[in-house]
Amino acid sequence: MGELIFVGLGLWSEKDITIAGKEAAGTCDKVFAEFYTSMLGVPEEKIEEVIGRPIEVLSREEVEDGNAILDEAADKKVCLLTGGDPMTATTHIDLRLRAIERGIDTKVVHGISIMTASAGLLGLQSYKFGRTTTLAFPEGDYFPTSPYGVIKENMERGLHTLVLLDIGKKLMTTNEGIELLMEMEERERGGVIGKKTLMAVVARASSPSPVAKAGYAHELVKENFGPPLHCIVVPGKLHFMEAKALVMLADAPEEIMK
Questions:
Q1: Domain containing residue 76
Q2: CA 96: distance to chain centroid?
Q3: Model confidence over 43-90: pLDDT tens digits?
């Protein structure tokens, strides 16, 4: 009987993989990886050096189809490497369930996730986050505004929103993300994103030089946060300790503590 192991690589470099993840991947007959749901700041060759195995990088279509992975795992020990934590992506959950249905043993080795790293860098309480959303680049007439609705819903409940940014054909920056949110406000007119809306930025989490910066939308959109990967957090109702943390850890305006 085969085995399929899902291994989270963390957020930035080959050094983020856990010892358990390194050991699991190093004993596999076949190692796959995908970087369309999340990606790292180093090439896969660096990861190959750490685990001691060649990696076959799969496309989105190949992972969603899943047959290449499942066929190999039918009688071999197979690993799928993913950025962040593997079970934060619906595609990976679906793949695990399909493997179990085929009688393939499965195992998960967790990795550092932006879900917790962003909260930690900013000093926000992770249990006060609502639904996460993703900003995608518009294409032609395609201009999705669902992230606006998610932020609005979370704010109405006093919850923070983690806004992930597009990593498809181009890596979206915080500046581009804020501009998109401002355009959504112009279209939706829900009073969610204004010049004085407090936002926070996390750039290059888990790297040697991460950035955590909080401020008002009209000011942050003008700043340079360096190269991606970036994400945005729109805070909801702040506990006094969270407000103090944003001031001390992310240089937020002190007036948010009043």
A1: 3-109
A2: 20
A3: 999 999 999 999 999 999 999 999 999 999 999 999 999 999 999 988
Cβ count within 10 A of residue 212: 22
User: What's the domain count of the chain?
Assistant: 2
214's CB contacts (< 8 A; 6+ apart) are: 122, 198, 199, 200, 201, 235, 246, 247, 250, 251, 252
Taking a C-beta distance cutoff of 8 angstroms, is the pair 86, 34 a contact?
A: no
Say if residue 130 is in the same domain as residue 216.
Answer: yes
Asked if pLDDT for residue 38 goes beyond 90, the answer is no
Residue carrying structure tokens 């994400």:
231
3-state secondary structure of 225: coil
Rounded CA-CA distance 79/30 in Å is 6
Residue 45's CB: how many other CB atoms inside 10 A? 10
SS3 labels along 114-177? HHHHHHHHHCCCHHHECCCEEECCCECCECCCHHHHHHHHHHHCCCEEEEEECCCCCCCCHHHH
Give the separation between CA 256 and CA 192, rounded to whole angstroms. Answer: 17
- Residues listed for the chain: 258
Give the CATH number of the domain where residue 79 resides. Answer: 3.40.1010.10
